[in-house]
Amino acid sequence: MDAPIRICIPSKGRLRDPTVALFEMMGFPPLGGGRDYIQGTTDPRFQFIFTRASDIPLYVQYGAADLGVTGHDLIMERESEVYELADLNYGECLLVLAAPLESEIRSGMDIPDGARIATEYPNLARKFFDKIGKQVEILEVSGTAELAPRVGLASAIIDITTTGETLMRNGLRIVEEIMESTAVIACNRVSYKTRRDLIEELLDGIEAAMKRGEPRCI
Question: What pTM did the predictor assign?
Answer without folding.
Answer: 0.91
